[in-house]
Specification:
Helix content is 22%, strand content 34%. By secondary structure, the protein is of the alpha+beta class. Strands 1, 2, 3, 6, 7 and 8 form a six-stranded antiparallel β-sheet that branches. Strands 4-5 form a two-stranded antiparallel ribbon. A hairpin with a 3-residue loop joins β4 and β5.
């Protein structure tokens, strides 16, 4: 009987360890039609050079290129507003810390410490990091763009595919002869 009670208690305790994710899984967005287009040129190297120039004009830093494969990889980052609640969800007392302890023995002691952040918020801004890849083959150009939001403490807050018309259409127009 004692064993059944102990096993039951163990099952109840372990079932409490199950957790569900904070956010439900989201469907991956399909890249816009403007993110894949025919370039109509025989020389893929000239398209790649033009693509590199366009990306650098948009503020991207070239990460790598491979002309044999027709791949260009670039990235850019920009700081986001500190006051954006989606990124920084600090509470009212987030800068306050209270700690103390009680000890006993030959004598009794009690200590309490209260600390708070003085002098304003000196943390870095959250960052939006964009990764862009272009694949140029004999017929077409394929553009993919991924965005990551990193909070001020270096944690990944959001990541999504941003291969949309607003980004790809101007690139397509700049690359077409």
């Amino acid at each position: 009987m004692k064993r059944i009670g102990l096993v039951s208690l163990l099952i109840v305790a372990l079932s409490g360890c199950q957790t569900s994710p904070d956010q439900q899984t989201q469907a991956v967005s399909v890249p816009a039609m403007e993110c894949r287009f025919a370039h109509g040129q025989a020389d893929t190297v000239s398209i790649m050079r033009k693509s590199i120039n366009v990306l650098e004009e948009e503020g991207f830093t070239l990460r790598s290129t491979d002309s044999a494969l027709g791949v260009i990889s670039a990235w850019r980052e920009r700081p986001l507003n500190k006051q954006d609640d989606r990124i920084d969800e600090r509470g009212f007392f987030s800068g306050l810390s209270v700690f103390g302890g009680i000890g006993s023995g030959g004598s009794s002691r009690f200590g309490l410490g209260i600390g708070t952040q003085l002098g304003g918020d000196r943390r870095a801004n959250a960052l939006q990091i964009e990764d862009v890849s272009l694949v140029v083959d004999d017929m077409a150009v394929q553009i993919t763009r991924d965005v990551r939001i990193i909070d001020s403490q270096g944690r990944l807050r959001d990541a999504y595919n941003a291969s949309n018309t607003a980004f790809c259409a101007p690139l397509q127009q700049a690359l077409m002869p």
